[in-house]
Amino acid sequence: MCSYITEIVAISGSGKGRNDWTPLDKAVIYYDHPVHAPFDHALNIDFTNSVTNERVAVELSAQSARDLIARIEAALNSGDAVHLGSQDAIRQKLAGGRQADLTTEHVPPFI
Amino acid sequence: MYRNLVCKEVLYQGHGNQTKNAYFAAPEGAGPFPAVVFIHHLPGWNEVCIETVRRFAHHGYMAISMNLYSAYGEGDADDIGARARADGGVSDEQMLGDVAGATAYLRAQAGANGKVGVMGYCSGGRQAFLCAGRLPDLDAAIDCWGGRVMVKDASALNANQPVAPIDYAKDINCPVLGLFGNDDKEPDPDQVNKTEEILKSLGKTYEFHRYDGAGHAFFDWSRPSYRPEQAMDGWKKIFAFLGKHLA
Question: Bridge-partner residues for B25, per DSSP?
Fold first, then answer.
């Protein structure tokens, strides 16, 4: 059905829309009928610029949305460890540890 | 069938006496023609609405589909629908005002026979059921798999949709046709059965048709949910129902 199940969160960032990059300040998340993805229901996200009404839209299967949440968390945790200076995490990476999302590109130059 | 049609975008007076846009189609000729208001679903006022209105005209009906999202500007239907959703969607009161205005527009057309039915898919089906209870001058209502006609708990109600349509069932003043897929989750068969029980207990005139092998949105040829046999039978039921009650 058209569920009206909608979550809205303020965000800060940019996205590439129909023509060019645009600042984004709001994400509208809903689990409802997609326009294009071949599912009865999908996890849909509109990353929007509330001033220009531009949006970058995605429609994901429920499972791929859950997978994405997990990988976003993993990437953020690993990235925080590197970018926010967790020396232990970085040493673990350099020692061949199993921090899958740490890459040498993320290692700060002062190491 | 009527091969020659008049199809055009029109302006009408909707909720709050605001001028809004809609798509109108009718057979060429003097009539008299019955009429149908088609309510679009939550994702937007899209090409399906245009096709549906033209289909009714092809079968001898005046028909109109209002743009419930006219306040959200111009653009691709899915983009406008996204804006409306982010804003909480339109209220039931706005929808009722827009349907009432579109009904008046149809009755004012030369060639109208004065009989007007309302129909919608999905959220539009819910809204059509609500119209049956809230707009006493309608002559027929068609609910195609409308979810939340009967809510499972109060959390499904909000400021825009404060009352479940089933709570207005006692006020329904026109025949109701319901089409449902037995694999649908919202409305599921239990909800459909309970809705029917209430209409029956109230002595309302209704027809409910349930389809095996179909779920939600089984008319929608653009989606995997499309079920051609069930959809074509559903259209036969629609035209038989309207032919009986709007003639």
Answer: B7, B63
Interface contact flag, B185 A1, Cβ < 8 Å:
yes
From the list A3, A40, A46, the residue facing B82 with the nearest CB is A46
Pairwise CB contact (< 8 Å): A33 & B42: yes
Unique residue bearing structure tokens 């429920």: A62
- Show the DSSP H helices in chain B as ranges: 47-58, 77-86, 92-107, 123-134, 189-201, 228-245
* pLDDT tens series, chain B, 247 aa: 999 999 999 999 999 999 999 999 999 999 999 999 999 998 899 999 999 999 999 999 999 999 999 999 999 999 999 999 888 889 999 999 999 999 999 999 999 999 999 999 999 999 999 999 999 999 999 999 999 999 888 888 989 999 999 999 999 999 999 999 999 999 999 999 999 999 999 999 999 999 999 999 999 998 899 999 999 999 999 999 999 999 9
> What tokens does A36 get?
């294009």
- Burial class of residue A26, CB neighbours in 10 A (0-12, 13-18, 19+): middle
Look up residue B112 and give its two tokens. 């109208």
Q: Is B94 helix (H, G, I), strand (E, B) or coil?
A: helix
B40 and chain A in contact, CB less than 8 A: no
Helix/strand/coil for B153: coil
